[in-house]
Specification:
Elements: H1 9-24, H2 34-58, E1 62-65, E2 68-71, H3 72-92, H4 107-127, H5 133-151
Length: 152
């Protein structure tokens, strides 16, 4: 499927997902942080995909950062779908049958974490060169969610 213009983004995606769940998924009664890994993966899978689709199809207001062009329409799609994916994951997954060893957050905390994770993911996507966003978006949003989840 890769073409001569392809980036190593597909490989980076596999690496970032492996790192996310390798660092955060625990079994055997330990506190599990898999919902944070899943939320960070949602920023990549839903957010970045929608940014690409919307940006290419309807993106007419371009901006350039570090020599890489993006569209405001794609960035808006990234933010809105990332927030939807992150917030749904953080509201429904912790403490559920799919992640029984994780600690659930109340709704305001989950929404606050989702907002911050969304901002980090969206900025990471906007600043990353082509393909590198498959590393920066999930790993930086994971870092923000993990650090902040211990503070709230």
């Amino acid at each position: 499927m890769d073409t001569s213009q392809s980036t190593p983004g597909t490989v980076y995606f596999a690496i970032s997902i492996t790192v996310l769940f390798g660092l955060l998924w625990r079994t055997g009664g330990q506190i599990d942080h898999a919902p944070i890994a899943a939320a960070a993966a949602m920023a990549m899978t839903l957010g970045d995909a929608s940014a690409s689709i919307i940006g290419r199809r309807w993106g007419t207001h371009a901006y350039t950062v570090f020599g890489h062009s993006r569209s405001w329409e794609g960035t808006a799609a990234m933010a809105s779908t990332s927030f939807s994916g992150i917030s749904t994951t953080l509201l429904l997954l912790p403490g559920s049958a799919l992640s029984p060893n994780s600690l659930p957050w109340n709704a305001p905390t989950a929404v606050l974490l989702s907002l911050i994770g969304t901002v980090v993911a969206t900025v990471a996507e906007a600043l990353s060169p082509a393909g590198a966003d498959n590393l920066s978006v999930p790993l930086l949003s994971r870092l923000a969610l993990y650090v902040l989840s211990d503070l709230v």
